[in-house]
Inverse folding.
């Protein structure tokens, strides 16, 4: 009965919008004879457009875990220091994006690069629809720029992979058999001196059936790190199942999606011109500084809308 009530509420919302649209059309017919009604008609058209935009966003956030917090991981691609610096730039971009949305962030695991940047990082991001929004960022991100690490000032292309998983409730369908995991504890990395971690509180978990490895070392205790690592593992296994379903659906539709590391979703070009372009939606902007400072909503919203259209098709 609760589900019926919820569905009824949704239907009533769309029926009300339909009635308003028909009324607006009637008002348009009357405005042809009475121009003084144009102001009222323009106001209603603006209000209807805003309502439709909001409802479209609600549809885009209707996935089973879209309202959940997100676990975002960034992995530097091949290219050494240049790629690791790019991974750190992406981390800053997402942290600034979260800050603009007043989301809370917590870095659960980070591996620094040898000279600069990071090899990988995992961040938990908490806020309304965090996973529903950030799932648009999954994929390979490509950077083209004059490398600050090249003494000859040559142009370099770097890649980094972004993974996004939902933070799942414990009763979600992803079940992990204790026999399928190996748990290893080790010393957390620290700055040294009196603050260095003397106990083995960091946790590394290997999922034997898939070979997947997750680590957590920024919590205070071994128990907390184990719980965090298991959350990340469950999220990644869930995403793996979702990708299998998507691949099967693509086969049924006669279209096979290439999901390998080289299939970038977005290009960030800083030289010889300034442009960020999303290759899935063709949305682009020349304000690369703003994008790298966290202004990525235009790309997220465009992908969500295009994904809705794909579902309709």
């Amino acid at each position: 009965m609760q589900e019926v009530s919820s569905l009824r509420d949704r239907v009533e919302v769309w029926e009300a919008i339909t009635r308003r649209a028909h009324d607006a059309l009637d008002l348009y017919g009357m405005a042809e004879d009475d121009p003084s009604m144009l102001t009222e008609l323009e106001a209603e058209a603006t209000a209807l457009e805003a309502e439709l935009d909001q409802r479209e966003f609600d549809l885009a956030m209707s996935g089973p875990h879209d309202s959940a917090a997100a676990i975002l991981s960034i992995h530097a691609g091949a290219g050494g220091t240049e790629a690791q610096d790019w991974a750190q730039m992406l981390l800053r971009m997402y942290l600034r994006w979260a800050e603009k949305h007043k989301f809370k962030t917590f870095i659960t695991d980070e591996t620094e690069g040898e000279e600069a940047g990071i090899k990988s990082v995992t961040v938990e991001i908490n806020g309304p629809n965090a996973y529903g929004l950030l799932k648009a960022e999954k994929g390979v991100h490509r950077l083209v720029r004059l490398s600050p690490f090249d003494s000859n000032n040559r142009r370099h292309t770097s890649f980094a992979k972004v993974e996004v998983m939902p933070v799942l409730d414990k009763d979600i369908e992803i079940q992990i058999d204790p026999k399928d995991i190996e748990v290893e504890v080790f010393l957390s990395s620290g700055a040294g001196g009196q603050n260095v971690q003397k106990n083995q509180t960091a946790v590394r978990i290997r999922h034997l059936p898939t070979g997947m490895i997750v680590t957590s070392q920024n919590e205070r205790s071994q128990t907390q790190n184990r719980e965090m690592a298991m959350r990340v593992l469950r999220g990644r296994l869930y995403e793996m199942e979702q990708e299998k379903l998507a691949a099967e659906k693509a086969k049924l539709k006669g279209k096979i999606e290439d999901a390998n590391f080289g299939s970038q979703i977005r290009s960030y070009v800083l030289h010889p011109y300034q442009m960020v372009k999303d290759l899935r939606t063709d949305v682009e902007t020349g304000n690369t500084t703003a994008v790298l400072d966290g202004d990525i909503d235009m790309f997220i919203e465009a992908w969500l809308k295009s994904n809705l259209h794909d579902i309709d098709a």
User: Anything to note?
Assistant: The first helix runs from residue 2 to 31. Residues 191-196, 253-260 have pLDDT under 50 and may be disordered. The two ends are 30 Å apart (CA to CA). Residues 70-172+263-312 form a domain with the Alpha-Beta Plaits fold (CATH 3.30.70.1660).
